[in-house]
Amino acid sequence: MKFDFLFQSSPWFILLCLIAGAIYAFVLYQISPTPWAKSTNRLLAALRFIGVSLICLLLLNFLIRQITQSVQKRTLVLAIDNSQSMGVANKQVLNGVLSQLESLKEKLQEEDFEISWTTLEGQNPEKASDIQFNQKSTNLSSLLSGIKNAQEGNNLSDVVLLTDGIVNEGINPSSEKFTFAVHTIGLGDTIPKKDIAVKSIYANKIAYLGNKFPVQADISSYGFQGKTVSVYLKQGGKTLEKQVVNFQQKDDLKTVTFNALASQKGVQHFVVQVDVLGGEFSSKNNQQDVYVEVIDGKEKVLLMALSPHPDIKAIKSMLDKNENFEIDIKILTENPFPDLSNKNYDVLILHQLPDYFNSYSNIYKPLLDKGIPTLFVLGNQTGTTYLNQLNQVMRINSQAGQTDKVTGYYNGNFKSLNFEAESLDLIKQFPQVSVPFGDITLLPNSEVILYQKIGSLQTQKPLFAINTGPKKSAIFAGEGIWTWRLEEFDLTEKQELIDDIFLKVVQFLSAKDDKRKLRVYPISNEFLLSDKVVFETEIYNGIYEKMYNIPVALELKDEKGSVRKYNYTPSAENSKFEISALPAGVYQYKANASVLGKNEQSTGEFIVKDLQVELSNTTADFDLLRQLSAQTGGKFLPASQLAQLEKQILAHKAPEKIEANEDLKEFINLKWVFFLIIALLTTEWVVRKYMGGY
């Protein structure tokens, strides 16, 4: 412990305090003769001197800094890879290793170590017997990084990692830097086992009703050279297609491709399964599930333009990136009377329409009157007078033929769509586009995505804006989008930034407004078998204000037709409902509630997946563990040599970590000073009275 004094005024004032105390004592006790002895007189003078000096020192209000230092105990974490592949190992060997680690913990605690357990999911069990080896994947990098963050500030010197080294998620842990030694204990068999497995499956997440789509599967084998097996594509227990593969090598990998038909809407559950042969190490990895969402048709986008222009090709290239868009292009100068009778469009894009002369209004005006969400892309031929009569985004006051050259910059206050503001700074480097010259006024419910930038001047004139009101629409006020895409590719060798902006705007326009009073939906479309399925609930009144404490009945129906029923009541504090332990598969849900006397319903579907990545590879990887330990200054030991670990940890001389705590106190706030002054003055008064003084 260490004390320092911090003065808020010159330390020379202390001398003045002492002088004041000395003068006070001298004036009071220099009288002679006294009714008491000289020694008593000196004692009384000393008491008065100290008391008055302390009172004067209180007026200086200096600070006392107290620094307390302590040496932190060394911290050690026992990290356990509790994935399913660890459970494949010999149970007796695994339990024996865990028992040895418990003994190691007790011995090191006697050596003044702080020790705790942790697992892949970040749990901290009290003892090894509480650990369940049921995790569906292994991410050792995340495990070690989690330990690093959780032990920040502690004297973490060593981590003991029990694992088989099979990593199937995250990055290689040996590529990261850690400030502690990682001692790895290798468990498992490094010799490949005789086995056949469905290694991986590839399929589009979305397919369109009535179309065929490919399902590709990689089938691996070890030790079955010369053997032939059948691979099946199944749905609902029914075989849709069968293929035969022949393994020609000891360690072989074959790829098979099935063509499945999207015959019904919704999420479809397919299974790729391979025959089980005699002598296989495990049959659990002989099949895998794949889920494909089948949708009925695409969002239909009509791109109608006055005349051919490079911007039209640029917009089409953007929209082609989204497979859910079907683009129909009509050039009116080439085809003045397009046939639009057979299609119901979801989004309308008008390029340089209306023009100066309001030509072709009889073609696009009926579409606008239907309330189809519209994106206006302006150009040098746009008639702003007619445009002002048709759009709900902005009013442009400009003369025909008058234009300005601008580029854009992102509006950081725009929140309706999610964009990364930092990446959008690149727009400032894009070429200038041609915009109408004049005053621009935003209309109600309109928000600006991009403002106009003239030279180095950032104006408040909108370049790209959307209206989020009942009649959704948007305006890009510039001509030359194609130059932006070329410049972005020149700068980044990608065309993502400007494409992302336009795609999100068109997706926003195509999204159907949800007017339901009851909205029940899962927080994700996909859950893992070990996850809780969480539903969010929103209930609204007639003016779409949220309501609570209304009972909701929820039904789940699985692929076999079994129904599970639940009842819950959302509140303002908790509008979520959780369901645990659902088997893997596709579930359809239906929620009902009585809202303001009317029955409201919300429906949908979600997937519960059973990942098999842990069972697709059961061959331990000790080379990774050796590399990790070598890089961190730790030691790799196979499970059979675990007894040497205590010696290795004690031999690791980690630097001590000293913890210092600083406490600042004002001298005037110290209670003992107050009582000391009272004691000094009281003692002086009692002695004077006892000796006959006044």
TrEMBL record:
Keyword S-adenosyl-L-methionine annotated: no
Keywords: Membrane, Transmembrane, Transmembrane helix
Segments traversing the membrane: 12-31, 43-64
InterPro entries per the UniProt record, alphabetical: vWFA_dom_sf
Entry protein name: VWA domain-containing protein
Natural source organism: Flectobacillus longus
